[in-house]
Amino acid sequence: MRGVLAALLLIGGCGDDHTSLPADASVDGPPPPPACPAGPPPGAPADQTVPGASATPSPAIRALAIEWAITGDANANATVSVRYRVQGASDWQQGVPLRRIPAGSTQGFSWANRFAGSVFDLAPATTYEVELALLDPDGGCELRTLTATTRGVPAPMAGAPVKPVTPATFAQVAAAAVPGDILELAAGTYAGFQLARDGAPGMPIVIRAAAGATVSVTGDIRLDGRHDLIVEGLTVTGKLKLNDSARLAIVKNTVTTTEDGITTKTRSEDVYIADNTVTGATLWNEAALGASGANIGEGIEVTGPGHVIEHNRVSGFRDCISTIEDTGAVEQHSIDIAYNDLSECADDGIEADFCFHDCRIVGNRLTNVFIGVSSQPGLGGPTYFVRNAMFNVLLSPFKLQRGSVGDVLLHNTVVKRGDAFGIYTTDVFRRQYARNNLFLGGPGGTYNGYDIGSGQVLSLSAADTATVDLDHDGYGGPMFAGRVGAIRFSSLAELRAMTTEKHAVEITAAAFATPPAIPASPFPALPPPDLRPAPAGAAIDVGAVLPGFAYSGAAPDLGAYEAGAPLPAYGPR
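^ that's the sequence the OP posted. Answer follows.
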């Protein structure tokens, strides 16, 4: 994730009772954590926190995941604040507080009692100190510092030998490749291939198109069981299969397929998929909508830990980017899906299902999608959905189904027909945390048998109101009415009085600098609009101030963009 906190003013954590300063303010860094209190613990033994092991599993390129096991804290009121710095630096930076994850289970998966969360906006290939301050008012206090190093962006070995390749010599040269070799393909048409050679850490085998050459590969590329490879700049008619792989980089390719695009169906780790254009065969029409619609293929699909999927352009699939579901889901944690440009996704734009923890869905643009982003389910969390912009979503912008637990929704913008924010399930979802989002709905309807609602601003009948925490969000639509759990409201005043949305605001299209038109019809496909906020509109300076989260003005703006900031670079760079 490139420049998340600095460029996109990323993400907050566990509550609103913290202070922050504007992004352009001069600060000396976050204050040190308070000293642990003296004396015996004041609370009941079951409510006291006993810290256990901590870890930073599967460091990514620009983020670190943190897990801290605990016992006790039955009333779940302990907190962990976070500071971090480059190893050896003098100044600390404020991090996002860890999320409290009580032990639980859903859909055959279970998780232990713990804290978990991520440190964002880090530099690649850099060692950091991360300071964690645990405090439980019932008893339990510890200051712990972890050290972890982010991965580097995959690159050829310095001074690597370059071996020219033609269609006639490819098989021979590939069979003899050794770690560090660069196989530079001349223009021409190559057959699909299955590579049988591996690189080594810091010494990848690189298969790339020569500068300015059009290298067409007709057929599948199979990299099953391979590690330490880079595939760059090819034009592929077929799919790239990466089962059981490690430390692969698939970059700057153009993939056209009638099946899946780039996929690993079994556990792989630390795969980097960036700056590709992946186009499938699924059409954007009513018959294609939904899990049982006339659609096919996963654009980019992964399972396993540590993957980074960024700046890709993906269109024309059932699911444009996805993780594996059910028993196929293996160690799906520490995964970044960021700044991708996705459209014509007939089921899910991003299907982050069965995330174990610390999947970070940040800064993506989704246009013409049936479901925006899916967490079906999250396995305790946190699964982060931050700064995503969605337009012409048909059914749900966030699909939190199958008993999802622990999703974090911050600074997303949604403009769609039907209910502005609807989740249509009877499976109760729990422990979601939402702040500073914008939802604008429109007229209802039914498409391919799916009712998208009547135009209410909220339709969350399966929300567990004891644990789902929504506030400081902006809503608009044909009727300011809706439901959260069993609570029904028919005005902004009732929403504020009867739910956790004590600081909700009402918006219209005038909240945007270029007011978007609610799609009169979802078909044919529509271009993505500019959804930045109007400088003096209803979304300005009304967001919650969140720890670890910079902003400009008197308070954060609602939605995916801070007023005056440029649009991110979506898709290939």
